[in-house]
Design a protein that fits this description.
Length: 305
């Protein structure tokens, strides 16, 4: 059994790994840990429907409007899990009315998400304590985007320490495939979705934000998505820029509402579902320097500094 060494000042504690006792405990803990599925609105756990056998652990909708099939296993998994999750994905794509019913039944859904009911995009998320690397060989060949996430737990009293590891192919080994939902989110894509002038401004602010990150030597990765550009500290977004209309966009920071308010910078709104403070950008007038306190706070919160 592995140890986690926790060093605080001159004191070091050796923590033992604390595996989850049952699959139900694992599913409940992960489902209730908002940061793990930070971009997913969970619609229902243990969904039954259609003619599919078995049960998808969670059905959700992500911030890009894709339907998420989330499968959790409290054991090591390998490529043999793929046929099972594909069955759930086929069901979701072929039963948009069932998904739409779950969506409409949820009372706290956000208006920012647009779901293409006539052409559903499906995303698969597999979560387990261990995922065999051979699983990547199969994932790269199927027609859905798949996230493979390993989660291990250590405990100290009432505190839980989670190691969250997203398994991905090395860039030089990654292969392109005709995958539904795996878009190239570049200038051409954004211009097909949003006002052309606004796209130019959006990309300008994204570039300025990246320059700021590089200047500070922050180890954050820029990632463009369908509706936002995020700066990620490992698995999690720290901050970024998101579309809030066809012509408008805003800065977002992964902070609590209380943390954001302490800066006294005027906030457009706080989005509880995503756990982020939102500040609308007025192109030509909004200066990134204004938001340095928020940028620093969000970075330190995600980077653990």
């Amino acid at each position: 059994m592995a140890n986690l060494l926790w060093k605080r000042g001159k004191k070091t504690k050796a923590l033992l790994a604390k595996p989850f006792a049952t699959e139900d405990e694992f599913e409940t803990f992960i489902s209730e840990t908002k940061e793990v599925l930070q971009d997913v609105i969970q619609l229902k756990r243990q969904v039954r429907g259609g003619g599919k056998s078995g049960i998808a652990d969670i059905v959700g909708v992500d911030s890009d409007g894709s339907i998420c099939i989330i499968e959790m296993k409290n054991t090591a998994v390998d490529a043999s899990i793929i046929p099972q999750v594909l069955e759930y994905a086929f069901w979701a794509q072929n039963n948009p009315d069932s998904i739409k019913t779950l969506w409409l039944e949820r009372g706290d859904k956000t208006d920012d998400i647009e779901i293409p009911w006539d052409n559903l995009q499906v995303r698969i998320i597999i979560i387990a304590p261990e995922i065999r690397r051979s699983t990547l060989d199969i994932v790269s060949k199927i027609a859905y985007p798949v996230d493979l996430i390993e989660i291990k737990r250590w405990t100290e009293g009432n505190d839980h320490f989670l190691l969250v590891n997203k398994i991905e192919e090395e860039p030089e080994k990654a292969r392109s495939s005709p995958v539904s939902g795996k878009g190239t989110y570049d200038k051409a894509f954004y211009k097909s979705q949003y006002n052309n002038r606004s796209v130019t401004d959006f990309l300008h602010y994204a570039s300025e934000l990246q320059k700021f990150v590089v200047k500070r030597n922050w180890p954050l990765q820029i990632k463009f998505n369908k509706h936002y550009c995020g700066f990620k500290a490992g698995f999690f977004n720290a901050f970024g820029i998101k579309w809030i209309g066809t012509k408008s966009f805003a800065l977002f920071f992964k902070l609590t509402q209380a943390e954001a308010k302490r800066t006294r910078i005027s906030m457009t709104r706080y989005e509880d579902q995503w756990g982020e403070a939102v500040y609308k950008i007025e192109p030509g007038r909004t200066k990134l320097v204004t938001f340095i306190p928020l940028l620093e706070m969000a970075y330190k919160r995600r980077a653990g500094e």
